[in-house]
Design brief:
This protein has 113 residues and is an alpha/beta fold. Helices cover 40% and strands 19% of the residues. Strands 3-2-1-4 form a 4-stranded parallel β-sheet, sandwiched between helices. The radius of gyration is 13 Å and the shape is globular. 31% of the residues are buried.
Length: 113
């Protein structure tokens, strides 16, 4: 059965973890970070408090890595994304994350590269 889920990219010990915990009160969450150490404790905390969470090692500067993470999330929770939070430094583009073009998405990395 498909349930709405949230994806939070850029999960670390600060803002990303706090956002993930808030969303986990209402949705299953997928936590994305390059280093599993950045999301493992948060996944455990969410699961221990009765929420559903998965962690996926993802390089958000690589479109294939992001696509693979979305596929894994959909396999775990279904196809309905309720929210996507992009908590990663970069150039600000004012539009929903899932509506970003590849060029807009990559512009943040070029700005910080």
């Amino acid at each position: 059965m498909s349930v709405p889920f949230a994806i939070i990219a850029g999960v670390g010990p600060g803002t990303g973890a706090a956002v993930a915990r808030k969303f986990s009160a209402a949705y299953p969450v997928a936590l994305l970070a390059r280093n599993p150490a950045n999301y493992e404790d948060t996944v455990r905390d969410i699961q221990a408090s009765g929420g559903k969470a998965i962690g996926i090692s993802t390089d958000v500067s690589d479109s294939k890595s992001v696509s693979d993470a979305v596929t894994k999330t959909q396999q775990a929770f279904g196809s309905t994304c309720a929210a996507a939070v992009f908590n990663v430094g970069g150039k600000f583009v004012r539009k929903p994350f899932l509506d970003l073009s590849l060029e807009e998405f990559e512009s943040g990395w070029e700005a910080n590269g």
